[in-house]
Amino acid sequence: MKKQVLILCTGNSARSQMAEGLLRQLAGERMDVFSAGSKPSTVNPLAIQVMAERGIDISHQRSKHLNEFLQQPFDEVITVCDQAAEVCPIFPGKAHRIHWSFPDPAAVTGSEAERLQAFRQVRDSIEERLRAWLAEM
Questions:
Q1: pTM of the predicted model as reported, rounded to 2 decimal places
Q2: What is the pLDDT of residue 92?
Q3: Domain locations in the chain?
Q4: Catalytic residue among 33, 88, 95, 126, which?
Q5: Choosing from 33, 51, 78, 81, which is the catalytic residue?
Q6: Can you identify the CATH homologous superfamily of domain 3-136?
Q7: Catalytic residue check, 37
Q8: Is residue 87 over pLDDT 70?
Q9: Is 61 a catalytic residue?
Q10: Pairwise CA distance, residues 123 & 116, whole Å
């Protein structure tokens, strides 16, 4: 049976969206992966762009409120920003909670090149953490 994984961040626009796309690719058929936020907005175009650089299309993903998933049992609930960890509700079932703190690339100001670099760094950090986590399983 596939593991059910929910990745949470406040806006569900960058970190959790990138993590969802990466984990879907890395875990293959082993997991069903979802992402959501406590204050969803829209998927950040720079997140879409840096994921496309890796051959992962997240342009079809949408920003979702975590309330959409409250009745769904999860095996793993991963928060990828500190604020989401603080507001994350208790999920039903046997969900194991994991918290990884990544900086918000959308908060970076500067040129487009500087902002893209911030997104790439966070994408790569998330991928490294996910690969290590999957290797432990």
A1: 0.93
A2: 58
A3: 3-136
A4: 88
A5: 81
A6: Response regulator (3.40.50.2300)
A7: no
A8: no
A9: no
A10: 10
